[in-house]
Design goal:
By secondary structure, the chain is mostly helical. It is built from nine helices and no strands.
Amino acid sequence: MALEKLRKMCSMQEKCPVDIVLLLKRWGVGQEHHDDIINLLKSEKFIDESRYAAAFVKDKVKFDHWGFLKIMYFLKQKGIPRNVVDEACKAIDRNEYAIMINKELDKKRKTLTGKRREVAARLARYGSSRGYEMEIMHPFLGDMAPEE
């Protein structure tokens, strides 16, 4: 029963092995069956870490405007290998990513007041909390901070 339910869920939404284990525990499936179920789902292509990571990265950048650092942290928590995460991040167009960061920092800047240096520092903290890389934010910080 659990296997059929998982197949149906995985056919509608990407899942990773950690998600599957959490569901199995919630449903009371014994831990001795977890590896067998996950391996079967992998062999049947219902779960695939590369596909999961690619979908996660695309969605988080496009809809939630997360930066790669935050995405990497969350995927690491899900047990996705670093090389898989790096591959998924490569699929995102760097120019579009930088434009997205610029727009997000600009929206935040419009809500801030104060001296140029203070605004730039608050923008940097905001961007860091969103997972944006400092080397991408840096060119925008000087340009975006309002004059004193």
